[in-house]
Amino acid sequence: MKIPPDILKSRVAVITGAGQGIGAEIVRGFVEKGYRIALVDYNRDAGLEQERRWEGKGKFYPCDLSNQQEVEALCRSLRDDFEAIDVIIHNARSPAKERDLLQNLENEWDRAIQVMLKHPIMINHLLLESLKKSSNPSILYIGSTNAHFISQQPLSYHVIKGALSQTVRYLACEYGAHKIRVNLLNPGIVDIPGRPKRNPQFFQEVVEAVIPLKRTVLASEIADFCLFFSSEQATYLTGSSLDLDGGEHLQDHFNLMMNQMRNTTCEMAKI
Fold first, then answer.
1. Which DSSP letter does residue 36 get?
2. What is the reported pTM?
3. Any residues with CB less than 8 A from the CB of 231 and at least 6 apart, and which?
4. How far apart are CA 101 and CA 98, in angstroms?
5. How far apart are the C-alpha atoms of 126 and 90, rounded to whole Å?
6. What CATH number does the domain containing 97 carry?
7. Cβ distance 10 to 36 under 8 Å?
């Protein structure tokens, strides 16, 4: 699909994992600000749906980010289609479910490293000349507060999200001479439109217990912060990491749980 000529002068954002979830919200935010979008996703149906949704304001590029040949072909297509690229947002993640260490290492580790760490770095470098043609080039990684603590996610996810902080620092130094900024956004628990919650009342009680702002971050708020990092207001911001978690990381969760258990015991003693 060719990009309509009336928007050929718009700024360009390349967004991976653009077909659904957080990625789809980031796409929405950038489209509404007048960007042209390169919609990169492994899921062809989801990617094409996003392309149809935005009526020619973006183009879908199917790509398996674990496959180096497909990544190289993606970057060739992007260089052919866009004279300059202003923003790259690395949002795609590799599905990882194996909590068993050996199973995770054997079945999921390599793909996760390729999708979320190795090949995003390769994309940056293969699109370097296109970024250099922008007046305000920006690279943004979507990380996670799992970089700081251990959750239900498997080993590979935690290791990669932790490694992104140093990746961003290194690339910020590497690309600074080209005025290309590189930053990291670490969302906490995300409220994604259309995603059902199991036992929502209990979920909300837990959220209120551990998050000072008493709610989860909205996917639309993640899109807003992506726009800020890419904006003219952030032209001196590089190599930084921002935790977007409503203050969840500020509290001692052990003592929170101890107090909760203590209060529960007291309430039961009154019965």
1. E
2. 0.90
3. 136
4. 7
5. 14
6. 3.40.50.720
7. yes
* Helices 219-229 and 21-32, axial angle in degrees (round to 10): 50
Q: Rg of the chain over CA atoms, in angstroms? A: 20
Tell me the C-alpha distance between 171 and 182, whole Å: 7
Strand 12-16 to strand 87-90: parallel, antiparallel, or no bridges (unpaired)? parallel
- How does pLDDT run across 179-230, given as a tens digit for each residue? 999 999 999 999 887 777 778 888 888 888 889 999 999 999 999 999 999 9
- Give me the residue label for tokens 């199917």: 62
Instruction: List the beta strands (DSSP E) in 54-171.
Output: 58-62, 87-90, 138-142
- Number of domains observed in the structure of the chain: 1
Cα end-to-end distance, the chain, whole Å: 68
Residues in the chain: 271
Amino acid identity of residue 21, one-letter, is G
CA distance 57 to 37: 7
Asked if 59 and 51 count as a contact pair (C-beta separation under 8 A), the reply is yes
What's the rounded Cα separation, in Å, for the pair 174 and 258? 46
Cβ contacts of 53 within 8 Å, gap of 6 or more: none
Containing structural domain, residue 233: 5-270
**Which residue, among 37, 75, 249, 216, has the nearest Cα to 147 in the 3D structure?**
249
Phi, psi of 16 (to 5 degrees): -90, 155
